[in-house]
């Protein structure tokens, strides 16, 4: 019987060594192909990175009007409240969950502007303005009523409309996020 040679003369590599190296390289490549999607999915999405913070020109909102802008895929209500609305809010009791004053939900010196996330805190629906019992928003899906300060007054919503982190970068511009 012929004996198989493991190494050639002078310690040279054989076909078997080449097959072992090729199989190892293929295994490493296959492992990288499996692991890469798992690592890559931990990177933040490009659309949310672009909207990490946005600026908005408040001169686009007229008194008594509301504008809806999109931030991080969510609607944000920017409302320029009239003096009559603000007087009505001042006369209403400090209710809501948690109880918050209207002044605590706005920025100092800019109380006429209200900035809130436009998702109902019950199940995330988008409430409509001016159709509720308290002069604010109404969520037609499940019946939550909010006042013009975004405080829950009636219905299944567990808390007030959320106020995002924002600041006035000038008298007419805000930066959300």
Overview of the structural elements:
- This protein has helices at residues 15-40, 46-50, 83-91, and strands at residues 54-57, 66-71, 74-80, 113-117, 128-129, 135-139, 144-147, 152-154, 166-168, 173-176.
- By secondary structure, the protein is α+β, with helices and mostly antiparallel strands.
- The strands form 3 sheets. It has a 4-stranded antiparallel β-sheet, with no helix packed on it.
- β9 and β10 (173-176) form a beta hairpin.
- The mean pLDDT is 81.
Summarize the structure.
The protein has helices at 15-40, 46-50, 83-91; strands at residues 54-57, 66-71, 74-80, 113-117, 128-129, 135-139, 144-147, 152-154, 166-168, 173-176. It is of the alpha+beta class and 177 residues long.
Largest sheet: 4 strands, antiparallel
SSE order, one letter for each helix or strand: HHEEEHEEEEEEE
* pLDDT averaged residue by residue: 81
State the separation between the terminal residues, measured CA to CA. Answer: 79 Å
Radius of gyration: 30 Å
Number of strands: 10
Low-confidence stretches: none
What helical percentage do the residues reach? Answer: 10-25%
What is the count of DSSP helices, taking H or I runs of 4+ residues? 3
Biggest sheet: strand arrangement? 5-6-7-8
């Amino acid at each position: 019987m012929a004996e198989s040679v493991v190494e050639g003369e002078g310690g040279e590599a054989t076909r078997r060594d080449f097959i072992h190296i090729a199989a190892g390289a293929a295994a490493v490549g296959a492992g990288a192909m499996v692991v890469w999607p798992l690592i890559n999915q931990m990177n933040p999405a490009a659309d949310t990175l672009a909207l990490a913070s946005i600026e908005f020109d408040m001169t686009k909102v007229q008194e008594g009007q509301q504008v809806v802008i999109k931030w991080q895929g969510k609607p944000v209500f920017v409302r320029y409240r009239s003096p009559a609305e603000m007087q009505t809010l001042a006369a209403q009791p400090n209710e809501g969950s948690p109880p918050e004053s209207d002044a605590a939900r706005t920025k100092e010196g800019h109380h006429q502007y209200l900035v809130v996330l436009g998702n109902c805190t019950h199940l995330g629906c988008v409430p409509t303005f001016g159709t509720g019992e308290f002069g604010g928003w109404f969520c037609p899906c499940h019946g939550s009523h909010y006042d013009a300060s975004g405080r829950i007054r009636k219905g299944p919503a567990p808390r007030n409309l959320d106020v995002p982190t924002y600041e006035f970068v000038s008298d007419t511009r805000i930066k959300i996020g």
